[in-house]
Specification:
alpha+beta, 7-stranded antiparallel beta sheet, 5-stranded antiparallel beta sheet, 37% strand, globular
């Protein structure tokens, strides 16, 4: 089980001292059978007058910081040490009735899955539906896991990854038309496609790293910032990870931080500031993950600066 050290530093700078409103941070990885948190430290400058923690409706850890002083710089530094256990995709064990698509979720699970099946984006011409159906075998013998794996690798193969620091996301139809986007755009496209097929799907925000420490062409796409991917509920194995940006099926190299029905429920950092118009200068985001038993740095980089005065770290780019 790899031992990881993770650093996520977000720095905002201003021309002159500004005041800071309440800030909401979703930076603490989730505890689970496949990732065990050993240590987590949150260092904020200027020092908040109060930091309180809560769990949201999805069970994500959220830190709320309040400030009582002005400054020309705000730094939020999350340092985490955890053990991560990449799961072998061959261990995905789907119930017999759900191994072949289409299938229906059980009456016991359906009430809790309904909101994750519900479509979030308008598609009056059913373009997403049509695209999703290309992965279904007309003969009626479509293997459920293979169908989702094909969808994951198709996005990786047929679309062009283009990092974007601006907040927000393309609609799934825009991503389909442009054939390019960020990890969050890819995630929302696959979520809507899975939902179009009647499957429960959720958005995941976290980090990607290279578990084997490969360099050059072997690097995972999306390092140096927060990353986004998809979870689909498969009876027998529960929520299974799919990363269309890298063509990953399973949790290999993926560290979960926040899970939600929609992108906007999993923003890493959000808050407000007060001061003269035009005071905002820059935002810099740096994420670094090192694998202790593998040695070399797994992911590092800098996300481009935010283009506006909005006090919100963009969703995964």
């Amino acid at each position: 089980m790899p031992l990881l050290n993770l650093s996520h530093v977000t720095t905002y700078t201003y021309r002159q001292a500004v005041s800071f409103g309440e800030h909401r941070m979703m930076l603490r990885p989730r505890e689970s059978y496949d990732q065990h948190l050993l240590d987590a430290v949150l260092v904020i400058e200027p020092e908040p007058v109060e930091i309180r923690w809560l769990q949201d409706v999805f069970g994500n850890s959220v830190a709320i910081a309040r400030f009582d002083r002005r400054a020309t710089r705000l730094s939020i530094d999350s340092r985490v040490r955890l053990r991560h256990a990449p799961a072998d995709v061959s261990l995905v064990d789907i119930e017999d009735y759900a191994r072949v698509y289409p299938f229906a979720y059980s009456s016991e699970e359906m009430p809790d899955l309904l909101r994750s099946i519900e479509r979030q984006h308008h598609d009056p011409q059913r373009r997403i539906d049509g695209w999703a159906r290309r992965f279904v075998d007309p003969s009626g013998r479509t293997q459920t896991l293979a169908m989702l794996a094909d969808m994951t690798t198709a996005i990786r193969r047929e679309f062009t990854y283009v990092p974007r620091a601006e907040k927000g996301v393309q609609t799934p139809i825009e991503t389909l038309e442009r054939r390019k986007g960020t990890c969050r755009d890819y995630a929302m496209l696959m979520i809507e496609a899975a939902r179009a097929l009647g499957l429960a799907a959720r958005f995941v925000s976290g980090y990607v790293y290279n578990p084997r420490g490969m360099r050059g062409g072997g690097e995972r796409v999306g390092g140096g910032n927060t990353h986004a991917w998809v979870r689909v509920y498969l009876p027998g194995s529960g929520w299974v990870e799919f990363d269309p940006t890298n063509g990953i099926v399973g949790n290999d190299g993926l560290i979960r931080v926040a899970i939600a029905r929609d992108l906007y429920q999993a923003v890493p950092i959000s808050g407000s500031w007060g001061g003269f118009p035009g005071s905002f200068l820059d935002m810099d985001v740096r994420v670094d993950v090192t694998v202790e038993d593998a040695g070399p740095r797994a992911a590092a980089g800098t996300c481009p600066p935010a283009p506006s005065d909005d006090r919100k770290e963009p969703a995964p780019c």
